[in-house]
Amino acid sequence: MSIEFNLPDLGEDIETGDVIKVFVSPGDRVEKEQSLMELETDKAALEIPSPAEGVIKSVHVKEGDTIKIGQLLVTIDDGTGSAHGEDKTGKTETEPEEKKEPAKEIKSGKEKPLEKVEAKKEPAPPEATSAATEKEEPKKEAAQKPAPEKKTEHPKESAPREEIRHQIIPASPTVRRQARELGIDITKVMGTGPGGRISEEDLRTYGEGGAREKAAPAPSPAEQETEEKASVAGAVVSADKYGEVERVAMSKVRRLTAERLSESWKAPHVTQHDKADITELEKLRKHYGKEVESLGGKLTMTSILLKAVSSALKHHPQFNASVDMENGEIVYKKYYNIGVAVDTDRGLLVPVIKDADRKNIEELSIELKVLSEKARTKKITAGELQGGTFTITNLGGIGGTYFTPVINSPEVAILGVSRSAVEPVYIDGEFQPRLMLPLSLSYDHRLIDGADAARFLRWVVEALEEPFKLSLEG
Hints:
15 helices; CATH 2.40.50.100; Chloramphenicol Acetyltransferase; 7-stranded mixed β-sheet
């Protein structure tokens, strides 16, 4: 039985994706749940598993294609050979034969190629309109009409493609909005990105004098060699007036990150800095670290901060909210889902720990490790990247002292963590070496005032310096 496998629903608000890699070819045998291809969506990069065991009959997409939900990906023969499967497959394969048979019967059993019979449908010269002439010279008339027949086939084939292009325009929401603002019909713009994706540059080019032509002036032999080498790596090497430049198309994750951060930056940002003395906490972390590892997790400062922050959000609800300017409302969230920024080879992803306030530090450590690994190995799902109310981003493993993280809209605050360092701290009349952790809290000033931010950050600092505070007040 042949199985036609279409792109399944990938989650809320996901309509399209870019094919990054195709792992199978016609004739390959696949197992159930074996990866067929890698797809990058607006949320994450993920692998599409096979729905059944069998042999790949055909692959209907290729690398670089932008595909939509429900689009046919592959046809798999599961080897059952059931009548139901034969009917399903036969409908596609025998349809051309069903069209040919009526054409043969028109000539009373004389088998004529379908194209010759269809050629009769072309307008005939005035002298050939009589029924007698039509019967006497069918072969001659068909032979005289090959060129018009080819011409009529071309529009029939191109029309569906044009309709599809009008229905599925590969462009980001930002580009679509700019097209509307500029009064440009985006369906008439030719995209130069992967899969025909339309960029802001394509809009500018179209607005300056029409759609960009794909054909460019013939490059010199040296330029052609350089471009061919660059195209292998998915880049285009060219030059501006200062020297050589390289243009590389943004990945879907990087493009989405850029768009969302641009939207987030519209909120008035303020960043509050502070330090936490984690000398004693670090001793506890190392002491209980092996116990957490035996359970499948990793006790990190981030997992401890997840607990501290989820408790702080309950005491400071304006940090667990969003701003609805259109309706003039503040939306207070009654759930505490904390996102953690994860550095991957495709860019920054933010898996979300759901209901962080209901989990202990051991549970948070295990879940954080699992989600981080899934994000790095492209196993993360769209649902695991959605629903956050607050974000933590930790650069301590790389370095730095302080930074100003950008709010992850529609959230109103984000906590940045830098590398801890031993510093001399004046305590009880003398300087003592203490391990200090730099913290940076960025917040939306439309909702949160500076005093509120200082109180929130001090609550987190005190929770880290006095772990018993979490049990006492959390």
